[in-house]
Amino acid sequence: MSSEKFYLVDGPSYLYRAYHAIGHLSTSRGLPTNATLGITMMLWKILRPEGSDVPPAAGRRRRDQMPEGSDVPPAAGRRRRDQMIDRPTYMGIAWDAPGPTFRHEQFEAYKIQRPGMPKDLVDQLPWVRTSFEALGVPVLELTGYEADDILATAAAQLRETPVELVLVTADKDALQLVGPKVTVLSVVGRTGERVVYDEAKVTERWGVPPARVPDVLALMGDAIDNIPGVPGVGEVTAQKLVREFGSLEALYGNLAVVSGAKLRETLARYRDQAFFSRQLARLDPAVPLSIDLERFRVPEPDWERLRSLWTELEFSSLLRQVPTRAVMIPTAAVPQVDAAGWRAFLARAGDTVAVEPMLIGGPPDQTLVGLAGYSPAAGTCYLPRPLVFPAGTRFVGHDLKPLLAWAQARRIGPSSAEVEDTAVAAYLLNSSRTGYPLEQLCLEAGDEAVPGSLVGVLEGASPAEADPARLAAWAGARAEGVWRLWERQRGLLERDGLLSLYRDLEIPLIPVLAAMETVGIRVAPERLETLAKELDQQMDALLRDIHTLAGEAVNPNSPKQIAVVLFEKLKLPPLKRTKTGYSTDVDVLEELALGHPLPGRLLEYRQLAKLKGTYADALPLLVHPRTGRIHTSFNQLVAATGRLSSSNPNLQNIPIRNELGRRIRQAFVPEPGWRFVAADYSQIELRILAHMSGEEALVEAFRRDEDIHTRTAAEILHVAPADVTPEMRRLAKVVNFGILYGISGFGLAQAASIGRDDAQRFIHDYFAAHPRVRAYIDRVLTEGRERGFVTTLLGRRRYLPELTARNPAARGAAERMAANAPIQGTASDIIKLAMVRLSAALEARGLGTRVLLQVHDELLLEVLEAEREVVRALVPQVMEAVMALDVPLRVDIKEGLDWAEV
Hints:
Alpha-Beta Plaits; 12% strand
């Protein structure tokens, strides 16, 4: 049975290694985390080695969480037995205290060549220390001494105890400490390989016993610590001399027998420097501190503290290693009330109540099983199967859209003026997250835990059949959590200048989206069935062509079979490799198609198969049997740009520029006696660019209602507007929109199929003709680097911490996003405002017309024939007035009897 082990980690050594090993990494709010993550993972793998009671993370780790080539030990994969470590009984961190050490007093140039600590590493130090505390690992430090000296002192003090000391460090200085019951664990190279140094391993590596490592360093020096050594004496020579003579004293006592006149002369000249270098290299075992082993005994992890910290730092790979938290089932009884009791509760509560609804299903068929309410004044109660929402009360909830959809279907409150939504607030405060579960937000806020999943509450029953008392306790605890979260969020929204965006846009949008989901859009399944049959015929014909061209019955859906045919049989050039072989992705096939017909046929087949599976086959299955309509979900809390997204199914992604996309859209039809009307903002992002940049040429063009692409073509091609051809205009259109997205010369060359030199010249000429656009982009990037985020005209934030990344590729991508985010985000805000105000205008006029879809800069409405002329006049009037810019907003109106017509 192995003895107890004390792992003492050289903190500064691994802090810097982690910082440099993991590229730029930060939270979605911009807090740098690469060093914190790296050193935390290294400590975690010592505290919870393979085979411990915590399972390793499931699935693949995200590349941004653990890049290839990291010096941090990998969490996955089996290690050789000689690389595995025992779980420590004791563990501590040796740390450098601020200020100079005794070595700086002895040698002013000690470590002078080292640059100052990078700012993004300085910013992480408090989080690193917090991580040590959360892991339960104490820190050892003392002013005037380095972490290395603390390692030496620990080795000296623990030598007479039964504890085995394992020094975890990558510094070669520490190898001098190896001896009986003292080993060094080093993680080396880009593979993260673990090497354990005992006395034999040190002698094998350095050619001398541990005690003589300082003698070797005295001769060879140490560039990292600026220890001078003897000029011209390298590692091999130093090891040979110490091995041959036994010590520095013996070497200089027998200098005459050293072979090589030049070496003898150099050694003699730098004798004092050699002995001084050894003095610097020797670690001090007499740091005045006492090591109490019990202080360093490894405790069981504080799982909730780690969960909270790693959630805040967004360490997803580590979070997967935290044991799944049991569902918190509240035990406090929550009173169940009837309608009268609910009204009495609201009267006691005051003007605001936090609610947690229990809903089953989704639009248009959903059932409200129960509703919990909470306020500090009235406490908590639970209303089974509520039927009314008395007016005059403000309701605070978390993701209230389903509740509002349920209420709208019954023509009862609350209105958007009477709700607050903590999920929407969380989204505005940080739109880069991947989700906004109430229990996680409360945990991050340092609040008490609130229950999450219903599974433990239901115990296998459906919500309608579950114990009402348990449901009441569950919903009541969540309602109280909503209240506490909202109290915190109000101040944060005001601090970040987001309160107006929240109240005037995002909250009023909730009932609009709820109504759109409930209404849905009508589908003609027979049109999709016809299309599916046609696609089958086209795919069969393509498959015959593929088999003929391949010379065999190859499966076009098998990348492995396709690779064999393309690269082994037909000898086409393989352009890209993957872990499993040669790539046959879209980019590869498009390039190969230039020289052989088979890749082109494969691309056609894949496109048809995707359209058939995604739309022609899938959409009929999603038609609601009662309404005959598809009820997509509009996601308000997903896109970091502020745009809405659509899911189940995604109706925003149907191809628009090809015949097949048109055929799919033909299947979406209005009710008999109704028409579709589409309202599309014309060139809205370019108009926003003109406003935000103040570029006079653009402002003037839009005010005069000129064709902006024709004008740009004339400017960059140096021709008269009358001489601009359709091809020239298409090129200018690519340039105009490419500028919005920070396109490079290479990107423009690819997008426009032109030479790279021509592309670069067009970009140069564009900025020459529009200097304020260049100045605007530069200003946005400067402000983004300083603040860590960019904003829309309405104050919506897009956090882009990678603007200061050391990695040029990551930084460049962030710069492109930063240049575009204020423009694209403002366009998103404008279309959302249009949805809110248009819905209000239709309701105010008592019109039956309804908004069905929002796709990019377009709204699709279903309009009664009798309201057609009124709506055609009203829609542009409302949409063009939602925001005052220096250039006019323009809305194009089209109508038809299916979606393709508009």
